[in-house]
Amino acid sequence: MNPRHTRPRDCRDTAARIRLAEGGGWTAWDLTPAQVVTLADHEGLVHLHPETATRWRLKAKDRVGSVRLGTGDGALQLTITPKVPVDRLLHLVSYAPERVDFDPRPVTADARTDLLPALAHAFVSAAERALLHGVLHDYRETYDTLPVVRGRIRHADQLRRRPGVPAPLEVAYDDHTPDIPENRLLLAAARRLLRVPGLNPAPRSALQRLTARLDGVRLLPAGAPAPRWTPDRRNARYAHALVLAELVLRGASYELDDGREIAVDGMLVTMWRLFEAYLARAAGEALRLRIGGRSEPQDRNFSLDVAGRHVLKPDLVHYLPLPRDGTMRQAVVLDAKFKTRPQRGDLYQMTAYCVRLGLAEGHLVYASGRPGVVEVPVGEGQLRIWQHVVDLSRPWRDLSTDVLDLAAKIDTARRAGAMKTG
To answer: For residues 113 and 104, what is the distance between their CA atoms, to the nearest angstrom?
Structure first.
């Protein structure tokens, strides 16, 4: 295989492009000494092995995405394509955006359906569902100067600005308006995505319709931070779209360079971390729906030793109330593994979790493979370690169903274990 650097078609950027595949084999590239130094300075991204003085073999590590590295003669645009299809990757990211690392240096956006254009499709779909029952409004306190009283008079401002003058009046009133943080966030993300080069006509038209529906919402000033919002019952139907909008604004900061160039920020995803965060959050939601209680993703409340120096790090601990007094107690422990087959170390780890948490069973969840169960003798009894599979090769719409099925299996195992000990 003899891949060559190609130059961007729609941008004057001359950074060499390197495109690798997650989990792929070694490929050979012609690199300058400065580019070799750039890659060596970012050793967490690729394996690097020399063939000749100017030819090097590269292989991707465990991150996927696209990022701009280096400057001058050492500048590179590195793209690592995921094994997981983009729609599934975005489904995982929407549950766990904090597991995505963003690089503020610009990367040229190609006219191909890749991670960022695909993000536009996902955002459009989520935003259309959010606005299905109308644009969200809320009351906002507004200060104004009016010829008649509306709301209440701001007496201090009136006396300071117009002493002895009866009109106009300085007033404050509650205005029922769409100009709220949630809508500002949607509008900012839609306008940002409209600047993605090569965006297909269908999502582009949908984004334009979205901006028209958000009439009366203020534009986010250039360079301003994303509006902050707090999840509640009022904005629940917006939640998925808002998560994706934040992702757009963090990971796709487009800048017009001289009226002709459009650049986008780099975005890198460590797949095993993303899978763990996704499973913890999605399975936690599914367990709450099925059995109630409270889920703690990445729970750090337990230590292996008495001194507390060796903190346990399960991906999810689910708590249920005790029948006698309602005290919340750990009932389920789950750990996600971005692997194709179980390993002995996984069993040792889950055994430690179960023993320390006082549970008769634990749950390992893999991204592929076969389900099973391992029975481990502990003292005079035994514990069961269940091996589940949430297969990322399945269509993303099926992943939610698979997680609900996982919660059902965990509940069934928990009830069977309780009957057996009872």
So the answer is: 22
Distance CA 281, CA 178 (A): 30
Mapping DSSP to helix (H, G, I), strand (E, B) and coil, where does residue 250 land?
helix
Joined together, the tokens standing for residue 258 give 């001289």
DSSP state of 275: H
The CB density around residue 379, as the number of other CB atoms within 10 Å, is: 7
The confidence score (pLDDT) of residue 207 equals 93
Low-confidence ranges of the chain (pLDDT < 50): 1-12, 105-113, 251-265
**pLDDT tens-place string over residues 330-377:** 999 999 999 877 889 999 999 999 999 999 999 999 998 889 999 999
Task: Please state, in angstroms and as integers, the Cα–Cα distance from residue 133 to each residue in 24, 137, 236, 405, following that order.
Answer: 45, 12, 12, 30
Closest to 137 measured CA to CA, from 192, 174, 172, 171? 174
Give the 3-state secondary structure of residue 174: strand
Element (H, E) at 331: strand 328-337
Q: Rounded to an integer, what is the distance from CA 402 to the centroid of its chain?
A: 19
Share the mean pLDDT of the chain.
Answer: 81
Cα–Cα distances in Å, from 147 out to 1, 16, 158, 172, 332?
A: 77, 63, 12, 13, 64
If you count them, how many residues does the chain have?
422
Locate 263 and state its tokens: 């650049």
